[in-house]
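Our consortium's second objective concerns turning raw sequence data into structural hypotheses that experimental partners can test. To show how far this objective has progressed, the report includes one record in full. It was chosen at random from the queue rather than selected for favorable results. The single chain below, 154 residues long, was entered without modification.
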Amino acid sequence: MGRGLGRLGASPAARRSPPDRLNPMARVLLDTTVLIDVLRGRPAGARVESLHRQQGVLFVCAINVEEVIRGLRPGEEDGARRLFNGVLVAPLGRVEGELAGRWRQRHAARGVTLNQADCLVAAAALGVGARLATGNVKDYPMPELVVEHWPVGY
C-alpha cells in the first residue's frame, strides 16, 4: 500500500456511522481505479490522504471491495486490508438496485449498454450523498452523479 496510508484506519464505530450524520460536502466514494492506484503507491494515495486530513469521509462499496480483492497481486493483501479498514462501506440495498436497474434500462433503450457493477457503484455513491472519484469517467454518464476524474496512474 502507498506511503502512510495505514493512518487512514478508523475505529469500528466510525466505520459504522450512519451517513446522514456525516458532512455531505466532504463525502467521496473511491472507485476501484482509485483504490488500485492507492494500493500501488501512485499519486492517488496522496489525494486520499489529503481528503482524510481535511476531514473527508471516504467510502467504497462491496463492488469495489470485490474488484480490488480479485485483482490483488502477491503481497498486496495487508495493504488492501488497511485501506478498507480506513473507509466506510456504502450500502447496496433495494433502493440502489432499483436505481441501477433504471439507469441500465434507460440507456439500453437508447442503444447504450451500461455495466451492472458501474451502475451499482454509482447508486452506492448517490445513496450516501458522495461524489465518485474514478479513472473511468465515461463509465458513469448518470446526470445526477457528481464524478471527479482521477486519471489512472496520476
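The partners drew two points from this record. The chain has one domain: 22-149. The mean pLDDT is 87. Both points have been shared with the crystallography group to help prioritize constructs.
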